[in-house]
Design brief:
Distance between the termini: 24 Å
Mean pLDDT: 95
Low-confidence stretches: none
Helix content: 40-55%
Structural class: alpha/beta
CATH topology of the largest domain: Rossmann fold
Number of domains: 2
Order of helices and strands: EHEHHEEEHEHEHEHEHEHHH
CATH architecture of the largest domain: 3-Layer(aba) Sandwich
Radius of gyration: 20 Å
Shape: elongated
Number of strands: 10
Number of helices: 11
Strand content: 15-25%
CATH superfamily of the largest domain: Glycogen Phosphorylase B
Length: 278
């Protein structure tokens, strides 16, 4: 939705680059009114370093909203004072999901895009020993015919991998909550909401060591692997399945982090921000 020059008290723009025209129009029409620009991963780790339009949005904004604190260091120094962190909340699905006993279900949740490195978990699962019970359940729409064909071919050739396609949001959250582990293999993320969904559901995470995950899980989290490192991810998957102490340590680390992603906390963060600019 673009800003159509209507009178308003505040503009909240999602995406610095995609909303650049709306931000420019708003600040020219209402220069005394506040403008908040919320930054995505592609904004923060790519577009603001390459696209002048994205940088103009940052300069025009009264405040910048980031979804996790590690992202602040990726902003130009002169703009960091505008930044405020608001962690996106998540709600645990109702009821207690039944974990499958015959397989060790690992979920991957997110639309199939190159930036998500969507088949990294599937490739890692190919390296597991024959005795492993791990199965990769992949949730998300294929955003290109090429990726759809890749997912279908992976299912044919990899008995540990199943692609479910796009699910309704509630169904996707329940499927993640049912799994024993979530893998996030993205190359960049602004602050993946699926991580928060896993945390509040009590599902531990293995994640690529990227800024977006460092800001949500912490520098000292034990479940990181180098981005694109199939062998390291395979070793971690094996450790999670076979080493109960390691699995429980990840569970406890995630349980501690989950406290930060409540709706009340997110609501209070917005209240503070609005009071600050009001």
């Amino acid at each position: 939705t673009r800003y159509q020059s209507q009178a308003c008290d505040l503009l909240v723009a999602l995406h610095a680059k995609r909303s650049a025209q709306s931000v420019a129009r708003y600040v020219s029409r209402q220069p005394a009114s506040p403008c908040i620009v919320a930054l995505t991963g592609t904004d923060l780790y790519r577009d603001i370093h390459r696209q002048a339009a994205a940088r103009r949005s940052l300069a025009a904004a009264t405040r910048l909203v980031l979804l996790q604190p590690d992202g602040i260091r990726h902003l130009p120094r002169g703009l960091r004072g505008k930044a405020r962190v608001i962690l996106q909340s998540a709600v645990r699905p109702r009821g207690k999901p039944r974990k499958l006993k015959t397989v060790f279900e690992v979920s991957v949740s997110g639309h199939l895009r190159a930036v998500k490195d969507p088949f990294r978990a599937a490739r890692a699962a190919r390296r597991l020993p024959a005795a492993s019970c791990i199965r990769i359940i992949h949730i998300g729409a294929a955003l290109s015919d090429t990726l759809r064909r890749q997912a279908e071919a992976e299912m044919q050739n990899n008995p540990r991998y199943r692609w479910l396609g796009e699910l309704a949001p509630g169904a996707a959250r329940r499927r993640v909550a049912r799994s024993r582990l979530l893998v996030l293999s993205s190359k960049i993320e602004g602050g993946a909401n699926v991580l928060a969904e896993a945390l509040v559901a009590g599902v531990p995470v293995l994640s690529s060591r990227i800024s977006g995950s460092l800001g949500m899980l912490g520098e000292d989290y034990d479940g990181y692997f180098p981005t694109g490192d199939t062998r390291r991810l395979a070793r971690l998957l094996s450790d999670v399945e076979r080493d109960g102490r390691f699995y429980r340590r990840l569970q406890e680390q995630c349980r501690q982090r989950a406290k930060q992603f409540t709706p009340a906390r997110e609501k209070n963060s917005w209240k503070r921000l609005l009071a600050e600019i009001g």
